[in-house]
Specification:
Length: 107
């Protein structure tokens, strides 16, 4: 699959995440067909063409940690957007047992 295919499929996947839920980079990578693409997913998310449309703020790492360099205003902005959806952030982390979207690509 070409990088451009990963790009479009990543943003397509973001639109499937329900309100009040998060996914991991690895989860999106698995959706793309290769769990090893988690870093590629991170790079793609930094190129988000429409942050208010494609909810990249709902993506966290495998430990539930927020992105230190969230593209639309840093970790504080990511936390604000998550809180707005009812997702509680404690010490820069969300509880994946409570907030992770458990689709077939989770874990």
């Amino acid at each position: 699959m070409a990088y451009s295919d990963y790009f479009y499929k990543t943003f397509e996947y973001l639109l499937t995440i329900p309100k009040g839920k998060v996914v991991t980079y690895g989860q999106i990578a698995k959706y793309l067909g290769n769990r090893g693409l988690a870093r590629v997913v991170g790079n793609i998310l930094h190129q988000n063409p429409a942050g208010d449309y494609y909810p990249c703020f709902k993506v966290v790492n495998a430990k539930g940690e927020l992105a230190k360099a969230f593209v639309f205003g840093g970790i504080g902005e990511q936390e604000r957007r998550l809180n707005k959806e009812g997702i509680v952030v404690i010490d820069g982390r969300v509880d994946l047992t409570k907030y992770q979207y458990l689709d077939k690509y989770a874990k």
